[in-house]
Design brief:
The complex is a heterodimer of chains A (467) and B (105).
Chain A: H1 2-23, H2 30-50, H3 60-80, H4 86-113, H5 121-148, H6 162-182, H7 189-207, H8 215-236, H9 240-263, H10 268-272, H11 275-279, H12 284-287, H13 298-307, E1 310-315, H14 317-322, H15 325-337, E2 341-345, H16 356-363, E3 371-372, H17 374-381, E4 386-390, H18 399-402, E5 421-426, E6 446-450, H19 453-466
Parallel strand pairs in A: 1-2, 1-4, 2-3, 4-5, 5-6
Chain B: H1 2-12, H2 14-31, H3 39-50, H4 54-63, H5 69-102
Helix pairs in contact in B: 3-5, 4-5
Classes of the chains: A alpha/beta (467), B mainly alpha (105).
Chain lengths: 467, 105
């Protein structure tokens, strides 16, 4: 009887995951969807707690203690985080999920290694895969977190020929895995520790060459790895809800990875070997030095904005860094009050994770009807009076369209130069994360406004108020 | 020998394999429809779901002998990590989606 109730709970839980994810596809139902999925998870955990077993009370104190501790840490982190730090938080949570899978597979394998438990070849395959995928997701996510948080710089951790090293490393690990599956008797605790450590190092090495603007891809990919490791763990325990949950996450991560790659018109392989940094900026030297940039005065810009009909904001990672979303909203309100139409052009890979800009703008209550995707924005840019680029760079680079020598050539970009005037808010003339010079800054329609994006926007709001 | 094992494995886990294949297709069908606006919440919500691996941790600790400290401590560590992922993931997604909701007025 109890067994049937538990199985039924797993079924309902899995159904809640599926329906919850489906509701996430519309802003109106998304919140309920997320809560539904959370309910499914709660139900599944409860059912697992009630599962009868031979060990009497089943160490319930340990389990509840661990759940309370983890729950408090997770809850606190989730309440405290700034919206601008969302990519970091998602990465680190993802890393913990991967770590959980590593610990589980590691403990199961330890029992095999110390002879307490027998494992068939198939079980070995699944256990080692769980350990491997979870391990890469774990250390990969931690490194991604450190990079996003600005604690680690890409250049310092990339070796010469890094992609080649990674390839050999991966093949070596796979061979090691096959050997262990085939000769499961050779698995001792020491061998297990060596395999685990190598896997964890590979995770770091895997993410090391991928940086900056490629972050949305790698975060999505690591997300799908964690899902796959959870699914593989589901096979170990013959548990359906783990399988379903894991596969759904694997699918979602894979789709986002593909979408992000498409948005940059690059293959996943190209991203993984760190394509941007590897090929550099083809014709960069020729545009350096001999061109000048024009700066705009705040008062002039304020007047221009005040009397124009349509303004398009192009936010990028710089908006998140400067936490300029509130200032953006103030400017928006002021202009709208004066019958200036304000819209936002959101490039799919703007920011450091899929949909990053949307979250920041939602935080300050900018309605999503004002947010345009790439095609919509490019259609509307033609009759836009002023474009304000706030901390975006590579996604507005004309080289992507007209310079075959550039490493971002072929990437769909926002054609801001089709508008009548482009204002670029930028801290300095330093190139963007891709390290490529941006001819937009020297374009005849472009004027620069140097300084911190938040400061500049706040001052601009002040000037517009004076009109 | 290995081949025989594989066949037996498929046979024994037939239901799981059905589930695996159908879930893959279902997953792609559902998620392909999510609009760009919701990519971040989708990712963090999915991320929370991947914490379902915590169930393995609970099962492991439940089956451990009460004096097997190594397994108890290790399993509990897995549960802590998994719960951070689950609770944190759902909570932060809810916080984000609350902001998306407000704007409908």
């Amino acid at each position: 009887m109890l067994g049937a109730v538990i199985n039924l709970s797993y079924l309902i839980g899995a159904l809640a995951f599926v329906l919850g994810l489906r509701r996430l596809s519309s802003p109106d139902t998304a919140r309920r969807g997320n809560r539904l999925a959370a309910f499914g998870m709660g139900l599944a955990i409860l059912a697992t707690l009630l599962t009868p077993n031979a060990q009497g009370n089943g160490n319930i104190i340990w389990i509840l203690g661990a759940i309370v501790l983890g729950g408090l840490i997770g809850w606190r982190a989730a309440r405290k985080v700034e919206m601008t730090a969302m990519p970091q938080l998602v990465s680190i949570f993802n890393g913990f999920g991967g770590a959980c899978a590593v610990v589980l597979a590691g403990l199961e394998l330890e029992r095999v290694a110390s002879g307490m438990q027998q494992a068939t070849t198939n079980e070995m395959v699944i256990l080692l895969l769980t350990l491997f995928i979870g391990g890469v997701a774990f250390t990969g996510s931690i490194l991604a977190y450190l990079k996003l948080d600005g604690k680690v710089w890409d250049e310092k951790i990339t070796l010469p020929q890094h992609s080649l090293i990674n390839g050999i490393f991966l093949l070596g690990l796979l061979a090691f895995m096959i050997f262990l599956c085939w000769q499961s008797a050779s698995l001792t605790v020491v061998v297990l520790i060596i395999f685990t450590v190598l896997t964890l190092i590979y995770g770091l090495s895997f993410v090391a060459p991928i940086g900056g603007a490629d972050m949305p891809v790698v975060i999505s990919l690591l997300n799908s790895f964690t899902g796959l490791s959870a699914a593989a763990a589901g096979l170990i325990y013959n548990n359906q809800i783990m399988l379903v949950g894991g596969i759904l996450v694997g699918a979602s991560g894979t789709i986002l990875t593909v979408l992000m790659c498409q948005a940059m018109n690059r293959s996943l392989m190209n991203v993984l070997i760190g394509g941007f940094s590897a090929s550099g900026g083809g014709s960069k030297a020729s545009t350096d030095g001999d061109q000048t940039v024009v700066e705009v005065g705040l008062a002039d810009l304020a007047i221009q904005l005040y009397y124009c009909d349509k303004v398009m904001m192009v936010p990028g990672y710089g908006l998140a860094v400067a936490q300029a979303q509130k200032a953006c909203k103030e400017l928006d309100e002021l202009l709208e009050a004066n019958q200036v139409e304000v819209k936002y052009a959101i490039h799919p890979v703007a920011g450091r994770m899929p949909g990053h800009m949307n979250v920041l703008l939602a935080e300050v209550d900018i309605p999503y009807s004002k947010l345009l995707d790439l095609e919509e924005a490019n259609a509307e840019l033609k009759d836009t009076d002023v474009v304000i680029v706030v901390g975006a760079n590579d996604v507005v680079n004309p080289s992507a369209e007209d310079d075959p020598g550039s490493s971002i050539y072929g990437m769909p970009v926002l054609q801001v130069w089709n508008a009548k005037q482009v204002i670029v808010l930028k801290r300095s003339m330093r190139p963007g994360y891709a390290g490529i010079q941006n001819p937009l800054f020297f374009h005849e329609k472009t004027k620069m406004l140097f300084g911190d994006a938040k400061d500049s926007l706040t001052k601009l709001v002040g000037e517009v108020k004076n009109q | 020998m290995v081949f025989d094992q594989l066949i037996t494995f498929f046979d024994e886990h037939l239901i799981m394999l059905y589930l695996l294949l159908f879930t893959i297709i279902l997953g792609f069908e559902i998620i392909a429809k999510v609009p760009t606006v919701l990519h971040t919440p989708l990712m963090s919500g999915a991320n929370a779901i991947s914490g379902v691996v915590i169930i393995g941790g609970i099962l492991l600790v439940k089956q451990a002998a009460p004096d097997d400290w190594f397994l108890l401590a290790g399993g509990s560590l897995a549960i802590v990590l998994g719960t951070i992922n689950v609770v944190g993931g759902f909570a932060v997604t809810d916080r984000m989606l609350e902001m998306f909701k407000k704007k409908q007025k």
